Amino acid sequence: MIVRTLDEIIGTDNDVRAETWASRRLLLKKDGMGFSYHDTTIYAGTETHIWYKNHLEAVYCVGGEGEIETVADGKVYPIKDGTMYALNEHDEHYLRAKTDMRLICVFNPPLTGQETHDEEGAYPLVEAE
């Protein structure tokens, strides 16, 4: 059994930060679950371009407010506490936060832990730890 708390993650190598977000990686590839599990904050007033070409992601908002816009069709979907969205087609999108948004994210294949978005908004597919 794996039991972890957010307090154990904050300030460690599994607390990965960028200009527009912070991701606390609770489960990673090395944990052998077949997915990774993240507690992510998108900072208020920011826009992040994301295109996970190598991963599928499901996201559940547990706090805050913002929106997601799909690049392919320009559709904008509001996000608030209780909203789930799934990027089941490697959807290129913009994530915008009106307030700090706290999101619980699941990635398949799992992340190794230190990935950050590349110039296209993707995480690289890392095979080895």
TrEMBL record:
A Pfam cross-reference name: Ectoine_synth
Keyword set includes Transcription: no
E.C. no: 4.2.1.108
UniProt pathway: Amine and polyamine biosynthesis; ectoine biosynthesis; L-ectoine from L-aspartate 4-semialdehyde: step 3/3
Keywords for the protein's UniProt record, in alphabetical order: Lyase
Catalysed reaction equations from the record: (2S)-4-acetamido-2-aminobutanoate = L-ectoine + H2O
Annotated TM spans: none
Entry function: Catalyzes the circularization of gamma-N-acetyl-alpha,gamma-diaminobutyric acid (ADABA) to ectoine (1,4,5,6-tetrahydro-2-methyl-4-pyrimidine carboxylic acid), which is an excellent osmoprotectant.
Protein name: L-ectoine synthase
Protein encoded by which gene: ectC
